[in-house]
Amino acid sequence: MNQTAPINRLPPEILAKTLEFRGGEKDLIFATHVCWRWRSALISTPSLWTEVTFWNPGRVLTYLTRSAALPIDVVIPTHASTRRSHLEGLLVSPTSWVNRVKSLDIEGGERQIKAVIRRLRLPAPLLQSLKLDGRPDQALVWGPSGTICFPQDFLGGRALSLRNLSFNSISPRIPITQLPLSTLTSFTWIDETSKVEAKDVLTLLVSTPWLEIMTIHLRVLPLPAAEQMTVVTLNRLRRLTWVNPEGIFSLAPCLIAPKLQWLSLHLTLTPEHLQNGLANILPPNEGHFPLLVEPTKMRYNTQEGTRLCQFHSTMGHVIITANIPPGHHNNLIHSWSLWNTSISFRQIKHMTVEAGRHPLGEIPIEQFESLETLEVVGGGNIFFPLAQPYSDTSSGAQVVPFPALLELQITPDSHTSLYILASVLMGRKQAGYGVETLRIRGKCRKSMGGPIAKMREFVGELVLELTHETDCTGHQTLP
């Protein structure tokens, strides 16, 4: 009767294939208890048993046996420490499971990871990924506070295939001479509790010539002035994420990455950093990050006490998020100047500005000669510096910002913003630089009717993308 069930008409290999999409390991164990046919098909499929979690010693041996000679992914979790005595035999076992490890994820506090690392002495020639997760409430403390070092015989010193290395809530001792870093393509170092010096990060990067992806989330102290001439070249680096809760992008003057496609910076600026601005954040040399030289798209945001810039180019894009220190928002109009960086804005065709009280202190408006689409979200004080014609101080000639502007998209915060915009559009048209398309978005208010009607004569096409807004009585108000 069991053989007549529709699901048992499937070939064994198809039945086993479906279990590759299981929700958890319990599903695999339960499936082997359905019937003899299922059990036979699943047990004889080694690829289903390659994810080994060191929890129950009996189950570990079962997975190691059923996975045959295939590479395995090993996880040694925090709760395994409660049965450390039962795992001793597995960690020092002369069996060949270590030489089959493809990825190794070790989790836990100081004693847990210490016990595991010191017992993994056999070579792991297939190891491609090593991840150490320390518990935030019980950071590793070996030797110097907040650091970790590896025994000389860790993995027998033979992890020659290591590609991905990740430290989470721990800090390695620099240099990590016991680990083969020359083959790394991905490196992650996250530790919100420890402080490291930029020169230590550079020391580590010198040993990673093949690095392609790097994520650093640390409190990194800046380089001393005498050591700022140190230069590290990563010819393969294409993605860099840098989060420094207590400072700037410390590697800017000493890191060369000619193939970088993605740069994400998240910084917390101090009052002294506000004086130097982007010139101290972004590289001063155009050869370091070529994608910064000619961005084609920009997004700029100063809302909620942060400063966000996104630069997009044909090669990649850059995201800069800076937390502004309390009490320094009023000084932003003259801070974070872009004048001394290698960025050129002459190729940007689209810019989005979502600004607060002091939006444009550092944007060199005269460089945006190719801007075609401008999107503005915010108050009326943005429009005057963005689009109002002005007289050049040296020649006295009239200058119209964004001479190639074809489309203006706005989301106004009040009807006053629209009256200001109408004045700006009139000035541009009188100067011979009219806007072809004006797109107004947002909620529809009765007070918007007057300025909208006034703008019709200054643009080629007026597009309204407005939603109804109800007053306190629940009635809709329309312009």
Rg estimate, integer Å: 30 Å
Strand fraction: 25-35%
Please tell me what the overall shape is. Answer: elongated
**What's the total helix number?**
11
Task: Give the low-confidence spans.
Answer: 138-146, 331-337, 471-479
- According to DSSP, the number of beta strands is 22
Helix fraction bin: 10-25%
Briefly note the structural class of the backbone: alpha/beta
Mean pLDDT: 78
Major sheet size, sense and barrel closure: 18 strands, mixed
Report on the structure:
- Among the domains are: 1-49; 372-389 and 398-479.
- The protein contains eleven helices and 22 strands.
- The protein is elongated and about 85 Å long.
- The strands form three sheets. The protein has an 18-stranded mixed sheet. A two-stranded parallel ribbon has the order 8-10.
- The longest helix has 16 residues, at 415-430.
- Strand 2 (72-76), helix 5 (84-91) and strand 3 (101-108) form a beta-alpha-beta unit.
- The N and C termini lie far apart (74 Å).
- It is 19% helix and 27% strand.
- The protein has helices at residues 12-18, 25-31, 36-43, 57-66, 84-91, 110-119, 198-206, 271-276, 383-387, 415-430, 449-455, and strands spanning 51-53, 72-76, 101-108, 129-134, 164-168, 186-197, 213-221, 232-233, 239-244, 255-256, 262-268, 297-301, 306-312, 317-323, 350-354, 373-378, 390-391, 398-399, 407-412, 435-444, 459-470, 476-477.
- Mean pLDDT is 78; it is low at 138-146, 331-337 and 471-479.
- It has 479 residues and is an alpha/beta fold.
Q: Descriptors for this entry?
A:
18-stranded mixed β-sheet, single chain, two-stranded parallel ribbon
